[in-house]
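Before a colleague's protein record goes any further, I have to sign it off. I want your independent view on whether this chain really folds as the tokens say. The record follows directly below this note.
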Amino acid sequence: MEQLVNLYNKAKTLNNNQLRKLIRSGDYIGQTAGLSKNMLQTNLIILEKQYALDFMIFCQRNPKACPLVAVTNVGDPFFKTLGNNIDVRTDVPSYNIYENGNFNKTVSQISEFWNENLIGFAIGCSFTFEHSLLRHGFSIDHISENKVVPMYSTNIKNEKSGPFENTMVVSMRIFKKYQVDKIINICKSFHWAHGKPIHVGDPNEIGISNIFKPTWGDKPRPLLKDEVNMFWACGVTPQNAILNSSVEFCISHTPGYMLITDIKEDAETPILQ
């Protein structure tokens, strides 16, 4: 455990190129919250080209959870608009493999799975606005404790497109009640990273019956009397849409283990390619 903490602390000191090299080599396989300050982090979905149009429409219909920031060319594993030599096969610390609408396994790289029919999609991530919150003096539990942010399936239905539907996934962070308005004001400008929260307060109102049993990520601590749960739309939503779908094959990032780009977090709209 101490070794993992030390490696995470080392990763926090690295620039994008150094961190990408460390991830690509397989020497860093940890979560990415708090890394590469001021840079856009993204969720990753890789699908066969037959599903590309349906998935892009799914993102368009559900922009809060699925802000699409880049698309690769068919069979090309590089996100050319997101930075220097970003390779979707190696530059994420951990990947999930889905087959026939079910989770199959987790792997550390996907070169052996890549083929000429695949397309990669990069979707904005809430880890991006966390850097701004930290700069404003807010404390974020999962970063200070080197844990994965808790994420939950909700009762908020997505707009369907082709085989993609299911419900929205949210990520949760704990803050002081008096901080809520300031946090909303900071986050609302990060529209490529989910923007302001979609819910504040009682998790039962969005279908979360047990806050201590997240669908993905680590269990949160109990609230103090002056604290509140804040929930953001989450880019793991497409993974939830793939579960129990008719999609034969899909690769994603493992929730909490993101693709780090060379795009500044406060950049204007990224150019899709």
Remarks:
- Helices lie at 2-11, 16-24, 52-61, 127-135, 141-144, 180-187, 237-242.
